[in-house]
Amino acid sequence: MPTMSRRTLLRSAAVAGAAVTVPSVLTACSSDSGGGDVSNAGKEQAPWPAYRPAKGAQPDLQPTDAGVQAGYTSYPADLPTAVSRTPGDGSTVKVMSVTFGTPPKGSAENQYWRAVEKALGVKIEYTVIPQGDYQKKMATVMAGDPDSLPDIINVFSGFVLPREAQFVQRRAEDLTPFLSGEAVTDYPNLANIPTQAWQDMGRVAGRLYGIPLERPLPGSTLWLNQEMFQDAGMKEGWTAEDFAAVAKAATGGKKYALGASTGSRFGDGVHAAAHRAPTGWAMDKNGTFRSAYLDERYKASVAFRAQLRKSGYYHPDATSMSTPDLQTLWLNGTVGSMQNGFGAYSVLYPDSEGLLTPAPSQPYAVDGTPGGVVGARRSFGYTILKKAKKERIQMLLRLLDYLAAPFGTKEYELVHYGVEGTHFTRGKDGSPQTTKLGEVENITNLPFRYLAEAPQVLFVPGRPEAVRALHAWQQKVVPVAIRNAAYGLKSNTEMSHGATLDTMMTDAITAVIAGRAPMSDLDDAVKKWRSRGGDKLAEEFAKEHAANA
Predict the structure, then answer these.
(1) Domains (range + CATH), the chain
(2) At residue 33, does pLDDT exceed 60?
(3) pTM of this structure
(4) 116: DSSP letter
């Protein structure tokens, strides 16, 4: 029977981080990186970059304007070139990003690293930060000497970094002259990034400072062991009562229907959306912002999870389990489900080969109302550039334009799969098949994808049936996706106190679901949250939205 390596688990975690990360407080942020007004209210707004779709391989399954992704059931046979010349100037470029993989071998020993360097035409000095160290490292970088900043920095959206926008405003290059409006067309692959991704990244004081890492509309998803749930009676169009009954049937002995990891609030996003609660913030027709915490549907979702936990359907270590450990239990059949980002499919399908069949869950209905799904921030994070001369900035943007080449191009294949014959071979259908070296030297362990990346598509090498199933699922759930109305909006209160507020609520919600506190404690926590900044957040988001309208 196939076994699961630590590499496999960390590779799976690479697409999950933003869905399950616990925000926390950074204390090592210098006064020099904060204090500025980063709001957009009252400031002239730079036009969003013009969207110019790149010409690429025609998909087998068509995308929709609403958010269903393009699907490829087979790998394109002919790969065009997306970049006409080597973008670099032979200089050394220092880059830094988060990673969910294992530390890569150095460039001298890493053929993948050297191949990408050669294609880019620069020497890359890459600082790779494991997810668990990201906040601490970013605190050091933000407080440090501005002259020592890397040339290219990935700002990961999985954490709330205090005074993040102030740091960006002070230390990063203002990219407005290079990317705003038609200016972006100098970098055709960056112009291929949809407007929604730029909007969800947001402006800082009316200006553009970053390049977003586009992500699909479906966000946090309940990934099921399809066989386990089908055997337990899962059916189309199920209700909350059906869900509980299936969870009961799938739980027994040392197996549990539901898994959760530290900070996920027992699958918060999935269950809140099924109850049709706001995903973070909702906005009414008058422009007033209202937090999910004030919505009775959200409170009902907490009570529902608390009952599932009390009934024993969650794994007992749900409040202390790491994401990799949870995925171990999911792959070996100990737990039947876990909340993860939708993009996790790209590794969940190959990693579970011969073990189980992954399936994204349909939302259950509550009191006769069909459930919703989490509408994700369309930007997984964004990339900023150290201040430099115009020619240097233009060269760095050319590098990012290369990394953002679309699926079905030679550039995309190199960056995502490595060198043919070294890191991958061709399957019978022509799709890349990873070699043993490719399992070590790859885009997960050396994550160029977190510097810039093309809009994502649905593709699983050698698994056309998986692509069809995912595309069909998206067609059903995209119409009921619930987006956070605050995506892309800047708030001075969020920058200064957001991490503390989020941690306070995560602790309170987790305690209630875990049975350590009564539901009344949730009401008390919400009152405290409002008085310590929650109401101020609502006011600032409303002003920001009006400025961006």
Answers:
(1) 80-215+378-455 (3.40.190.10), 218-376+482-548 (3.40.190.10)
(2) no
(3) 0.89
(4) H
